[in-house]
Design a protein that fits this description.
It holds the Pfam family Ldh_1_N. It catalyses: (S)-malate + NAD(+) = oxaloacetate + NADH + H(+). GO terms for molecular function: L-malate dehydrogenase (NAD+) activity. The chain is an alpha/beta fold. It folds into 2 domains: 144 residues, Rossmann fold, CATH 3.40.50.720; 157 residues, L-2-Hydroxyisocaproate Dehydrogenase, Chain A, domain 2 (Alpha-Beta Complex). It has 11 helices and 11 strands. The strands form 3 sheets. A 6-stranded parallel β-sheet has the order 3-2-1-4-5-6, sandwiched between helices. Strands 9-10-11 form a 3-stranded antiparallel β-sheet. A two-stranded antiparallel sheet has the order 7-8. Helix 2 packs across helix 10 and helix 6 packs across helix 11. The structure holds 1,4-dihydronicotinamide adenine dinucleotide and oxaloacetate ion (OAA). Oxaloacetate ion binds next to helix 9. The site of 1,4-dihydronicotinamide adenine dinucleotide (NAI) has 34 residues, from strand 2 and helix 5.
Length: 347
């Protein structure tokens, strides 16, 4: 059957892109693998990662349609070489030597579904991909996009523990889209330029577990409690807003690809030793009593360098945090239980 495609980019384009951050001699070689690369998120994410000058090798894996995506993206005259891999028998090659693995593989929601309704299908997909990661690139950073993130990250952790390769500093649930949404919605209400806005979002990545901290937003604006409540709810329901607008044709793909590319870029900068790279992410954590929690994380050469404190919360946010805990706890336990119910051994 398949088929792998290798395309070299022109050296002049490579030179001009690299000049932004590094000389071409000093920029490290970084292989990035995208699992689920032919999907709604995977395709635009592949495009955006092809535009990232920190990537030297872009490995696109899916169970279908990867040759076309790789051929298409591979014609773009930027630094990275692109290779497409399709089917389980090519997964090892796709992963070998990867520094960063981004996982948007799995089914998306339809109207009326919760993210947790995706658990039964996506848990199995994530499990198999993580078993292969443990074998073929155990030291890579993992950016988990597949939903329900609140459970798929604990599933990945259990797989890596079982394989004896777990490093909590290298496993990230991607919650950047919540931050992107919070910034956009806040800028609209606060009437400030969106490019200047920063808003931490903590907790997890589903409904009320998504907790934007508008009390820490910059620049600060004098918004009423009603507006802050509405902004919080819109951020929590942002995914559902897109699912309903797409009316059965999937969930957020373009904004997610943008958010995923932002987070991957931050991880690569951290790996390359760029100082003070801070992003929110769902990681193993001790800042609350929950074993996984999203908060600001400082990224470094080995992944997470520091999980930052939550900082001062408003009374409204303190209440929101208490509401996060039982739902997040049960999603984490569901992922761990899945891995201890015989699912680990059935590959
Ligand atoms: N973390 C976040 O903020 C967000 C997460 N998501 C989640 O991302 C996931 C993907 O969403 P879409 O791209 O819209 O779905 P999609 O259905 O368009 O694409 C999924 C891709 O995964 C592939 N796939 C399925 N099983 C696979 C396997 N075993 N190995 C490799 N590839 C496999 C499919 O062939 C398909 O190309 C969903 O679970 C969705 O809920 C979506 C938006 C935001
Ligand atoms: O809502 C969904 O199902 C997809 C997602 O996670 C998001 O858009 O935040």
């Amino acid at each position: 059957m398949f088929r792998s495609i290798l395309v070299r980019s022109s050296s002049s384009a490579k030179q001009s892109l690299l000049r932004r951050n590094f000389s071409s001699e000093s920029v490290p070689q970084r292989k990035v693998a995208i699992l689920g690369a032919a999907g709604g998120i995977g395709q635009p994410l592949s495009l955006l990662m092809k535009l990232n000058p920190l990537v030297s090798s872009l490995s696109l894996f899916d169970i279908a349609n990867t040759p076309g995506v790789a051929a298409d993206v591979g014609h773009i005259n930027t630094r990275s070489e692109v290779a497409g891999y399709m089917g389980d028998e090519e997964l090892a090659k796709a992963l070998k030597g990867a520094d960063l693995v981004i996982i948007p593989a799995g089914v998306p929601r339809k109207p009326g579904m919760t993210r947790d309704d995706l658990f039964n299908i996506n848990a199995g997909i994530v499990k198999n991909l993580c078993i292969a990661i443990a074998e073929h690139c155990p030291h890579a950073l993992i950016n988990m996009i597949s939903n329900p993130v609140n459970s798929t990250v604990p599933i990945a952790a259990e797989i890596f523990k079982k394989a004896g390769v777990y490093d909590e500093k290298k496993l990230f649930g991607v919650t950047t889209l919540d931050v992107v949404r919070a910034k956009t919605f806040y800028a609209g209400k606060a009437n400030v330029p969106v490019a200047e806005v920063n808003v931490p979002v903590i907790g997890g990545h589903a409904g009320i577990t998504i907790l934007p901290l508008f009390s820490q937003a910059t620049p600060q604006a004098n918004l009423s409690d009603d507006v802050l409540t509405a902004l919080t709810k819109r951020t929590q329901d942002g995914g559902t807003e897109v699912v309903e607008a797409k009316a059965g044709k999937g969930s957020a793909t373009l904004s997610m690809a943008y958010a995923g590319a932002l987070f991957a870029d931050a991880c690569l900068k951290g790996l390359n030793g760029v100082p003070d790279v801070v992003e929110c992410s769902y990681v193993q954590s001790t800042i609350t009593e929950l074993p996984f929690f999203a908060s600001k994380v400082r990224l470094g050469k080995n992944g997470t360098e520091e999980v930052l404190d939550l900082g001062p919360l408003s009374d409204f946010e303190k209440q929101g945090l208490e509401a996060v805990k039982p739902e997040l706890k049960s999603s984490i336990e569901k992922g761990v239980k899945f891995m201890h119910s015989g699912a680990l051994m059935c590959r």
